[in-house]
Design a protein that fits this description.
alpha/beta; Rossmann fold; 2 domains; five-stranded mixed β-sheet; 8 helices; 38% helix
Length: 248
C-alpha cells in the first residue's frame, strides 16, 4: 500500500514507522510546518503515486485538505479532531467527488472497544436511580482542542443510554450541578497521550472504567487499518463502521 502522510508531526511520524514495519511505502509527506522534512503543499504531482492519504494535522486545516484530496480523487483517513462542525460539508465534498473517507474521534482499537463497554455500562446503570455518572479526560498540554473528540463521543454515548442525563457540562461550575447534567472535565498538562474515564457512583460503591494510552502507536494501528479498508470503497464512514465490518 502506498501511503501519503498529510501532516508530519508526532502522529505522522508514528504512522510512518508502523507503515514501514508492515511493508507499506510512504510516497509523500505533506506538511507546511515540517521545516524541510516534507513537501509544503498538496498537489496532484505529490500525491500521484498514493493509494491512500492519512491526515493528522490541525482542525483549521482539515476541510481544505479534504477538498484538495477529494479533487485529486484519493481516498482519505482523517485522524484530526476538533473540526466536526464541518462534517456535513465534508460529507458533501466526498460524495461529489466519489472518493472514500474514514474519520474518528480516536483511531485506537482499544478506545473503540472501550466505547462499546461504556455504552453497555451506561445502559445497565440507567436502571438504578442510586447511580450517578461523570467523566474526565487528561491530555498533554500541546493538545489544541478541549474536550477531546473521544470525550465528546463518550458524552454522546452516556446521553443516549443513561437517560437521566440531558446535557453535558464541560466548564468549571460556580454552582451545584443538577441531576440532569453530565459533568465531563478536561485537564491539559504534561505529556499524557490520553486518559479517559467514565465513573458510576452510588452511596454504596463506585465503578470506574478507564482507558489509558501508553503510546501513540495504537492510533497508528487504527489509522492504517482504516486506510487498508477504505481503498476499495466510496463514501463517508466512521471508524466504528470499519470495525463493525471487520468483526462481522
Amino acid at each position: 500500500m502506498n501511503v501519503a502522510l498529510i501532516g508530519y508531526g508526532k502522529m505522522g511520524h508514528e504512522v510512518e514507522q508502523l507503515a514501514l514495519s508492515k511493508g507499506h511505502r510512504i510516497v509523500a509527506r505533506c506538511d507546511p510546518a515540517s521545516r524541510g522534512q516534507a513537501d509544503v503543499a498538496l498537489s496532484q504531482e505529490i500525491l500521484q503515486d498514493a493509494d491512500v492519504c492519512i491526515e493528522f494535522t490541525h482542525p483549521q486545516a482539515v476541510l481544505e485538505n479534504i477538498r484538495k484530496i477529494a479533487t485529486i480523487k484519493k481516498p482519505l483517513v482523517v485522524g484530526t479532531t476538533g473540526w466536526y462542525e464541518h462534517l456535513s460539508e465534508a460529507e458533501s465534498i466526498v460524495q461529489q467527488n466519489g472518493i472514500g473517507l474514514v474519520y474518528a474521534p480516536n483511531f485506537s482499537l482499544g478506545v473503540n472497544l472501550f466505547y462499546q463497554i461504556a455504552e453497555k455500562a451506561a445502559e445497565l446503570f440507567n436502571h438504578f436511580e442510586e447511580y450517578d455518572v461523570f467523566g474526565s479526560e487528561i491530555h498533554h498540554r500541546q493538545k489544541v482542542d478541549s474536550p477531546s473528540g473521544t470525550a465528546k463521543k463518550l458524552s454522546e454515548i452516556v446521553l443516549k443510554k443513561f437517560t437521566r442525563k440531558k446535557r453535558v457540562i464541560n466548564q468549571p461550575l460556580s454552582r451545584a450541578i443538577t441531576a440532569e447534567e453530565l459533568h465531563l472535565v478536561s485537564i491539559r498538562a504534561g505529556q499524557f497521550p490520553g486518559i479517559h474515564s467514565l465513573t458510576f457512583d452510588s452511596p454504596a460503591d463506585t465503578i470506574e472504567l478507564t482507558h489509558t494510552v501508553r503510546s501513540r502507536s495504537g492510533f497508528a494501528v487504527g489509522a492504517l487499518l482504516a486506510a487498508e479498508w477504505i481503498i476499495s470503497r466510496q463514501g463517508f464512514f466512521t471508524f466504528e463502521q470499519v470495525l463493525t465490518d471487520y468483526l462481522a
